[in-house]
Write a structure and sequence with these properties.
Layout (H helix, E strand, L loop, with lengths): L4 E4 L2 E4 L3 E2 L5 H14 L3 E3 L7 H10 L8 E6 L6 H15 L6 E4 L8 H13 L6 E4 L3 H10 L4 E7 L7 H9 L3 E5 L11 H10 L3 H10 L4 E3 L6 H8 L8 H8 L19
Parallel strand pairs: 3-4, 4-5, 5-6, 6-7, 7-8, 8-9, 9-10
Antiparallel strand pairs: 1-2
Helix pairs in contact: 1-2, 2-3, 3-4, 4-5, 7-8
Length: 275
Amino acid sequence: MAMPTFDVAGVSIPKIGIGTFNMDGEPATCAVAEGLQGGYRHVDTAEMYGNEVAVGEGIRASGLARDEIFVTTKVWHDHLSDSAMQAACEASLKRLGLDRVDLYLIHWPSRDVPVAEAIAALNRIHSRGLARSIGISNFPTKLIEEAVHATEVELAVNQVEYHPFMDQGPVMAALAKHGMGLTAYCPLARGKVLEDETIAGIAARHDVTPAALTLAWLIGQDSVIAIPKSSSPARLMENLEAVDVVLTAQERAALDALRSPAGRLVDPEFAPDWD
């Protein structure tokens, strides 16, 4: 089956991407290169990850044409003033070895720079041609509304933690209202999905791993994109099997029932007030 996409804001985003958080150097370069050679077409990184050089090397080592690869990077929350964001984006592009990215995100909202000011800077990244599309990350519903109200350019996605154990209902409703996608980070709940009996049982019926089954549940939701991370080429290819899995309504309901308001795993001290 061909890689499904979510089309928004003038771009077509492959619904499974290669996450690269906590990877650097040769492991990051190899994961990106081998993942792209194996069928992935979406790579996610960030200035804060410190691996944009290695990711760029992996993109080039893949042998694929630039326009075949969807590249996302993110600006850290201490670079959200206009001058700081412009410089941060230029630096990210230099490290990646690219003249533009396909999606540029505000990684976390700031307590110091108002949303409207940060979104204005993000709009200028787009108008300068440094990013084909723009969006946000880790924004709760209140800040989603502020961002949408402030932007002159359609926002593509909100990248947030999302997996079977976490209820993101309010955020998903806000994004749907504005036609935005949700990119799920930590989609495998830091490995917790591998230990869940419900997920394992359904995965066995489909002859895929619990990870692939979980990714199938995620990308089977219309506007959801997932960016699992793995430094293992074999695991990368197993995860890609998600595109061939079609869940029944009963199976989907069984996974839906695992969601909990208490399922959040990522909650740093600088996080916003969550829904």
